[in-house]
């Protein structure tokens, strides 16, 4: 099959494209290589993909309406895995318009491309951050997500709403994936695992927010990619029994579905730090800090729906995943 993978130079997009190529598929990778974090890391990911015969890279911004439209018209994709977005909760507080361009206008250009070119299935990245002020655990896709605490989260919820509209109006099968704290080799420098590993190896203190009283449903990248591709193989169909009054938000009378894609078992932040210390072999110096604006105390994914539809259950333990990242970090940065 021929796939468009947006955000192919990004963390999840790179690993997804790599897996598709290993399965013999043709992949067109799109990215604008923005400088939200070090561009060289993105370029080095692309070097890994460029060595594959079935990979072609396109340097295009999602907000480029004409460029995206021309790409869809020329390439005749079978499926689209849309993972490009302006990421980061805290960054959205200082740079709100970057999220409007990438996450709102950019999502719309992808939806329009799918609409006009008979795409079999659009799989797109949402986020666990859509749960916002929800305190019921674990987070379930039937929960209300109307109270986001960051603009990033609001744009991701908007992506789900926009996708439902296109599924309803044009019959486009769309699947949204609410990712839960993805980590692993080639990970993002703005994420805790990367920042903590870097600081510890450099002999610097790490900032531990909310005095360490936080938990995250950390999910290893290989488990995430496996979930993405299994969902891609299961385009949603309209549920004829669905009604707004009696049914949940995960599916619809349109060919639309939203999944949690997480490990399903939250880990305390201090336990996560302990795993990093063990993998690095150094005890961290810790600056205990107050809660950051836009953060939530805990995330925990109810993944029963993903398991029932795809049969996928994450397998990688945090200790193993953290060690794999630290080993990659040491090799990549030669430390």
Description:
The protein is of the alpha/beta class and 335 residues long. The chain is 41% helix and 16% strand. The strands form 4 sheets. The protein has a 7-stranded parallel beta sheet with strand order 3-2-1-4-5-6-11, with helices on both faces. A two-stranded parallel ribbon has the order 7-10. A two-stranded parallel sheet has the order 8-13. The longest helix is centred in the N-terminal third of the chain and has 21 residues, at 96-116. The mean pLDDT is 95.
Quick gist of this model?
Helix content is 41%, strand content 16%. The protein is of the alpha/beta class and 335 residues long.
Could you outline the blueprint of secondary structure elements for this entry?
Blueprint: E1 2-6, H1 11-22, E2 26-31, H2 39-50, E3 55-59, H3 65-75, E4 79-82, H4 91-94, H5 96-116, E5 121-127, H6 151-170, E6 174-179, E7 182-183, H7 192-201, E8 206-208, E9 215-216, E10 219-220, H8 221-232, E11 256-261, E12 267-268, H9 269-280, E13 286-288, H10 304-310, H11 318-333
């Amino acid at each position: 099959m021929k796939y468009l993978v947006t955000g192919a130079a990004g963390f999840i997009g790179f690993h997804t494209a790599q897996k598709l190529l290993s399965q013999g598929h043709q992949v067109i990778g799109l990215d604008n290589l923005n400088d939200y974090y070090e561009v060289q890391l993105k370029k080095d990911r692309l070097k890994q993909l460029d060595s594959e015969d079935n990979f072609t890279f396109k340097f295009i911004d999602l907000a480029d309406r004409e460029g995206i439209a021309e790409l869809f018209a020329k390439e005749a994709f079978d499926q689209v895995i849309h993972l490009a977005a302006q990421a980061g909760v805290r960054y959205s507080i200082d740079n709100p318009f970057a999220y409007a361009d990438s996450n709102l206008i950019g999502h719309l250009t992808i939806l329009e491309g799918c609409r006009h070119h008979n795409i079999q299935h659009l799989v797109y990245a949402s986020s666990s951050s859509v749960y916002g002020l929800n305190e019921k655990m674990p987070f379930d896709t039937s929960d209300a997500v109307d109270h986001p605490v960051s603009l990033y989260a609001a744009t991701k919820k908007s992506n789900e709403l926009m996708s439902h509209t296109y599924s309803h109006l044009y019959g486009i099968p769309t699947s949204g994936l609410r990712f839960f704290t993805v980590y692993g080799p080639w990970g993002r420098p703005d994420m805790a695992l990367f920042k903590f590993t870097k600081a510890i190896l450099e002999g610097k203190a790490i900032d531990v927010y909310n005095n360490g009283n936080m938990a995250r449903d950390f999910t290893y990248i290989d488990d995430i990619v496996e979930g993405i591709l299994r969902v891609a193989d299961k385009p949603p169909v309209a549920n004829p029994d669905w009604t707004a009054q009696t049914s949940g938000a995960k599916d619809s009378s349109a060919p639309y579905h939203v999944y949690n894609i997480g490990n399903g078992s939250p880990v305390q932040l201090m336990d996560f730090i302990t795993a990093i210390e063990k993998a690095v072999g150094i005890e961290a110096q810790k600056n205990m800090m107050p809660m950051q604006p836009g953060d939530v105390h805990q995330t925990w994914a109810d993944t029963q729906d993903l398991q029932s539809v795809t049969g996928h259950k994450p397998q990688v333990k945090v200790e193993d995943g953290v060690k794999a990242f630290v080993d990659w970090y040491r090799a990549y940065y030669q430390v």
